[in-house]
Amino acid sequence: MSMTDAQLESAGPLAGKRIMVTRARSQVRELVGKIEALGGEAYAFPLLKMVAPDDPSQVDEAIAQLETFDWLIFTSVNGVQFFLERMRAVGAGIEMIHAEVAAVGPKTAAALQKEGLSVAVIPSDYVAEGLLSSLHDRLVPGQRVLLPRADIARKTLPQELVRLGLEVTEVDVYHTVIDAELAPEAARRIHNHDIDGILFTSSSTVTHFVQAMAPFAQEGWLDQVTIACIGPITAETAQKNGLKVQVVATEFTVEGLLTALIEKLGGNRHGTNI
């Protein structure tokens, strides 16, 4: 039985919409919950697993030298969690961190603050370029910067810091690996037109989606699906992989992505708070 416009409106701006979520297993639950709160039906298709590096010696060496760094910069919540877990594992407390701490995005900052760390800089744009703009007047050539990040992280930030005369140490505190266990079921749902939209929250989710679905992809099989990306970098990756992107968030957060999706799918006539 189809719902009337009034019923859809009262049920939530995503009522009647089936949204596929492509995130790491550890991150899927939050986004699924937000979609369901907006009245939508969420289908979790976790494509990524975060794992600690097999050889932690590079991270351990950086931890041993923590007191020598002027800046400690985190670009993701995962980077915070894996780095601090490794610190605890080797018996190092956060009191060893004397550096100024910077975070890309409010969620990364919140993860640091939850651990008792004060965050000196949070950019208004939640990408590396925004952080560089926010930091620019505070960076001094010769300062030492530690960047705990993923093995597949973009190189924009460290390259620009080096260009500005800083000494940059990058350490891979976690690796992102593909998790395609649910690919056959996800492909079946798309082929059966059971999915209205697919959310991509990073470039890595896009590339892993394309890899995982390669055995099942057919010409035009995504034509009826709204492809939504958390920002322009993710959207560019999607387009390079042959996906037609209809939605790009203007605020590069989960909330911004959902707001943009609602506007595209037409369920939000009077505005909504996410």
From TrEMBL:
One of its GO terms (biological process) is protoporphyrinogen IX biosynthetic process. One of its GO terms (molecular function) is uroporphyrinogen-III synthase activity. Keywords: Lyase, Porphyrin biosynthesis. It is an enzyme of class 4 (lyase). Gene3D superfamilies: 3.40.50.10090. Its EC number is 4.2.1.75. Residues 30-258 form the Tetrapyrrole biosynthesis uroporphyrinogen III synthase domain. The keyword Lyase applies. It comes from the Bacteria. The keyword Lyase applies. Pathway: Porphyrin-containing compound metabolism; protoporphyrin-IX biosynthesis; coproporphyrinogen-III from 5-aminolevulinate: step 3/4. Catalyzes cyclization of the linear tetrapyrrole, hydroxymethylbilane, to the macrocyclic uroporphyrinogen III. This is Uroporphyrinogen-III synthase.
